Structures
1.
Amino acid sequence: MIFLDFKLKNDSSKYIQIADYIKERIVDGALRTGDKLPSTRQLSALLKLSRTTIQSAFQLLVDDDFIYSQPGEGYYVSDKDPILRTPSHIQWKHYFNTNGELAKNMDLIKTELPWKKNMISFTSIAPDSSYFDTDALKKSFLDIYSLESNKLLNYGYAKGYQPLIDTLKTYMHSMGIHLKDKDVLITNGFTEGLNLVCNTLTEQGDCILCENPTHHTALKIFMTHGLVPIGIPLSENGLDLQLLEAKIQEHQPKFLYLTPSYHNPTGMVISPQKRVAIINLCKKLNIPILEDGFNEELRFSDIPIRPLMSYSGYGNEVIYIGSFSKILFPGLRLGWVMADHDVIDILESFKRTMTIHTSTLDQAVLYQYMKEGYYDRYLKKVRQHYKEQYQYAVDELKKYIPYKKLYGEGGLHLFIEVQINARQLLEKCYEREVLFLPGDIFHLDDEGKNTLRLGISRVTKSEITEGFKIIGNCLEELL
Ligand SMILES: Cc1ncc(COP(=O)(O)O)c(C=O)c1O
């Protein structure tokens, strides 16, 4: 007889305990489909509980589809599979592995102060979407879709959509890169490219030498692969070549990760002379370079500077990772890796195990967009816009924020050093509805506490002025 072993506990409501007890009996088979339950009156007498309590328990079971009521007759066990309706109690947090925990702890969206409505936020360096030429993209989509829809909607190739690969090869060649023995793989942005490189060319514990500070996501990727990033401090003059050589000798890194143009977060650009010297040094010491070219095309200075890879000539030590996230539309999630054939070959195989391939439809639309000349036209327009935006922001910075140092020479952000801890400043600014990123998140070894990054790409000129005034006032109050 069921209910003889039923015992009330003090940890939850009585009607829930009765409902849970009946659910368990249905799941373990003691009660089967079609069985009639005791009436509320009988059960109330047996358990010495009020009929209202029993009625509430039955109602809960009806709501959860475990039983149904037959008016005038009573309650019956329903024919729905009880297992499917049993709530699970897996403690998923106990399953989280070290990599997952690390990614979560380093996830800025979840760990930094959240944006609230009406705040002026200098945290983002995403492009200003009001400049997107959406009509040109729409036209590109319609044109390529009408030509190739069947092909584009089926499985494609892990290496990418061939016309886009060819376009990118021509494009890289126009930037001075020798194509002999090199190939291209299309990726879901820079982030996938770097993950693929780490997945296929590194082992846990390998050291990666990088600029300090550097791109936060790159640090996160290195760490979640069990790699050890070692920073080379950047002075106002950028990378110190002697220090670089000493660090290479000391740590024998697997790679040197560099962002030569509009480095994130400092906005620095490595000069052509220094690019040649870095390539020569890496050739001499046999150290491969991971070149992050994410911002290359946005450079607005008059002196043309070629990617590091181009200075390597026919050499194969540079793996170039490009991205359309800043120079076009980040939502497309499109990027590419250009490297030695053997590197692309292994990346291609790994990509097939991860995502099979990047969306062919997206790649084809981008190809068409580039083929029609829209990309060059857009680039010209936004380069000019970001140049003006940067100059405006620097002027306002000089007027309103008593900073100690301004790094770099351009990009979608300003990186400054102040005389106090940037997190302390952020706390005060947050109260006045202004947000920015504290520079420590880009640093290794607890450095950069007095630095901050001010993203200027998605704010209006008046927000720059107003926000900088607030930051300046807060800073003065704290000094
Ligand atoms: C240094 C650096 N590299 C690359 C990227 C672009 O990454 P993705 O192409 O995955 O959007 C960013 C974006 O902020 C960046 O700051």
2.
Amino acid sequence: MRKTKDKGLGLFATKGIEVGAVVIRFEGEVMPHSQCPEEEDPYMLLLSGGYGVIPRNESRFVNHSCDPNCEVFGKYLVATKEIRTGEELTFDYCLLDEGDNYEWKDSWTFECKCGSPRCRKAVDGFLYKPRCKGEAAQS
Ligand SMILES: C[S@@+](CC[C@H](N)C(=O)[O-])C[C@H]1O[C@@H](n2cnc3c(N)ncnc32)[C@H](O)[C@@H]1O
Ligand SMILES: [Zn+2]
């Protein structure tokens, strides 16, 4: 974990990570997302069924990118690209499983500084990813 140029703290790979590897598990208290204390709002990871987890390990500091190298499956951050030592670990905060039904909160919106050519300029509203066959049985 270290300071980024303009996104506060971020999490960085200390070794190379292969596609499909679990990078970190979001460890912390699970609660109905509606009960999340306001100061923890930027940190809560939404789970399915109206619940969320307030991360207490280093997963707390994973920043957003519009062209990320990881994706969240349940409580797990998984590499979706090959990641080299020193690269920042990121996921797309806007991606939600199809079927999860959350309302975007204004307080979650911020100007995106991911720097990717595919940057959407703002983190502001959900994008849905289609549910894979068999995934429902595993979650
Ligand atoms: C879960 S925290 C990530 C850790 C955070 N950088 C910190 O220092 O505590 C989420 C917050 O980080 C900042 N952030 C994350 N990704 C960002 C991005 N791509 N551009 C600008 N700010 C970002 C936003 O302030 C966001 O609300
Ligand atoms: Zn961006």
